[in-house]
């Protein structure tokens, strides 16, 4: 599986921390398309999706989110939980199936992609089409 992780910085500030997410110096930067945010409610699951064109660059600035990735070519499942204690950028290349689950009351995922979002570049599967027990960490 070609998913990679990059540690991100939280700069402490007594008036409110600065959460550094992505820059032109990131090893995953290619070009700018758009940044968007997804909310996911506690114990809710959004799965399964696969990008045909864009790489995803995911981070969780608020809450705690479990991500699960599936590579059909290698028949591999991989999961990681991201929050401020394990603050990382997740780079997901095209053709990797992914889903995520909110673990706290309020959860926010940020996604930096190289091109403008296009529904034609995304494939969706029903939650039951990839075998994963979401109740386990």
Question: Would you kindly provide a written description of the structure presented here, covering whatever features stand out?
Answer:
This protein has 137 residues and is mostly beta strands. The protein has one domain: Jelly Rolls, CATH 2.60.120. Helices cover 0% and strands 45% of the residues. It has no helices and twelve strands. The chain has a five-stranded antiparallel sheet with strand order 1-9-6-11-4, with no helix packed on it. β7 and β8 form a beta hairpin. The chain is globular, with a radius of gyration of 15 Å. The two termini are 19 Å apart.
Concise summary:
This protein is mainly β. The protein has one domain (about 5-130): Jelly Rolls (Sandwich), CATH 2.60.120.
Characteristics:
single chain, 137 residues, mainly beta, Jelly Rolls, 5-stranded antiparallel β-sheet, 12 strands, 45% strand
Within the CATH hierarchy, at the fold level, what is the topology?
Answer: Jelly Rolls
Order of helices and strands: EEEEEEEEEEEE
Oligomer: single chain
Number of beta strands? 12
CATH architectural designation:
Sandwich
Helix content: under 10%
Helix/strand layout:
Elements: E1 4-7, E2 10-11, E3 18-19, E4 34-39, E5 45-51, E6 56-62, E7 65-71, E8 76-82, E9 88-92, E10 97-102, E11 108-113, E12 122-124
Antiparallel strand pairs: 1-9, 2-3, 4-11, 5-10, 5-12, 6-9, 6-11, 7-8, 7-10
């Amino acid at each position: 599986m070609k998913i990679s992780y990059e540690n991100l910085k939280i700069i402490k500030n007594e008036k409110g921390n600065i959460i550094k997410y992505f820059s032109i110096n990131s090893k995953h930067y290619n070009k700018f398309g758009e940044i968007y945010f997804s909310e996911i409610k506690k114990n809710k699951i959004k799965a399964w999706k696969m990008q045909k064109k864009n790489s995803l660059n995911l981070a969780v600035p608020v809450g705690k989110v479990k991500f699960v990735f599936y590579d059909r070519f290698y028949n591999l499942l991989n999961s990681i939980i991201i929050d401020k204690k394990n603050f990382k950028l997740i780079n997901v290349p095209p053709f990797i199936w992914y889903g995520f689950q909110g673990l706290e009351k309020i959860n926010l995922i940020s996604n930096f992609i190289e091109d403008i979002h296009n529904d034609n570049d995304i494939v969706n599967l029903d939650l039951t089409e990839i075998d994963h027990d979401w109740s386990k960490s």
